[in-house]
Amino acid sequence: MNIPKITIHETLSLPKLGIGTWEMGGRQNPDKSEDNKFIRAIQFALENGIRLIDTAEMYGNGHTEELVAKAIKTYEREQLLITSKVSGDHLAYQDLIKAAHNSLKRLETAYLDLYLLHWPNPDVPVEETMKAINELLEQGLIKHFGLSNFSAAQTAEVLKWTDAPIITNQLEYNLFTRNNGRITEDVEASIIPFCHSKDISITAWRPVLKGATNPLQQPLINQIAAKHEATPMQIALAWLLNKPLTLAIPKMTSEKHILENIEAAGIELDEQEMKLLDEIAD
Ligand SMILES: NC(=O)c1ccc[n+]([C@@H]2O[C@H](COP(=O)([O-])OP(=O)(O)OC[C@H]3O[C@@H](n4cnc5c(N)ncnc54)[C@H](OP(=O)(O)O)[C@@H]3O)[C@@H](O)[C@H]2O)c1
Q: Mind listing the domains of the chain with CATH numbers?
């Protein structure tokens, strides 16, 4: 199935659905016990049309990037969109340059399609961070850059220090987490409207509620799901993907989930369904 795409800042075309990799290969430390399972999961996603892979230097303390490298070996690099993130602890100039080179090395690639600041760091001047990002862009080591877990005010500050477009702000956002994320507040009330006014897309992290199906057991969701012959989780994901300038990167390991999420990218919700779902959370 062809995954719908959006073009951001008239410069980068991104598929609305990608695969997330948090907890593939460890959390803060490497866990190599299930490497084959995760490599296979990423490959299964690619075989079924996924092109965007989201990872970070922090995942498995670098090991997740190594797994991604193994998974993509047989693919032509230009067919893929690889996003990685520099930790908020590495936003000082030298640290950031070093982190980027380390990610490229672990991913065995000459460039990143998208490089995100994983979280803001108030101890490092944004000017310094952006000097490093601007250099990496000029050198072609990263094709585009973006943010993650940045408030509206923090995003506005970054805009002051670069002529390059901010492609995306990655935020915790799903049917039931709107303004009450663990890292960012006021996502729907403040950050999304600000980002959209600057043509910055939103990439929803934790888009499928970490797999929790209980909150989805509601008559309205069941009704919409039945109409589309979909699962309630597919409707939760489709709600995100039907929003303007919005992408989602579920972590999906099981083949069933991968196929279901790809199918969900093709579900078109009408205006009334979107409105009802918009109103479902507080
Ligand atoms: N920028 C940040 O600060 C930040 C923070 C957290 C996450 N992220 C990124 O966002 C990605 C997604 O977030 P997440 O991993 O925290 O949570 P998530 O994608 O909402 O949830 C992943 C869980 O949901 C299950 N799942 C996937 N599709 C499903 C479906 N259709 N039906 C039922 N269950 C389903 C998965 O199971 P299986 O694996 O068994 O298929 C997995 O257990 C991460 O992997 C990471 O790349 C970014």
A: 12-212+244-254 (3.20.20.100)
